[in-house]
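Researcher: Good morning. I'm working through a list of sequences from a screen, and I'd like to move beyond sequence-only analysis. For each chain I'm collecting a predicted structure so we can compare shapes side by side. This is the next one on the list. No need for commentary yet; just the structure.
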Amino acid sequence: MINEIAFTCYPVKDMIRAIAFYEKILGLKPDAPLTESSGGMWVEYSFGGGTFSLGKMDGFNPHEDGPSVAFEVDDFDATIKNLKDMNIKFKFEPMETPVCHMAMFSDTEGNPVMVHKRKA
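Model: Good morning. Structure tokens for this chain:
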């Protein structure tokens, strides 16, 4: 029986560029330095009870129509303003649903990324 998601991993082509995006643009803090092993590279970021990782290996390729991760933020409006101030182009602009606010953009590798804020 599955009891939790162990981690989510996004494929990347340029690890250094992707790390810069996730750490400088989104403010993620790595658990440990970039790891290289068995012909691959990865880095992990743990927060909120889960782990998000970036991986580079043969046969693991980014895609603009792939699954997306939604990062929960404390202040949705401030996050959107900050992303726009850094010239991040949105795949879909901020929107409101009955239960949340969300917006989607792409990372440096073309993977879809969402910022999300649940309503009270």
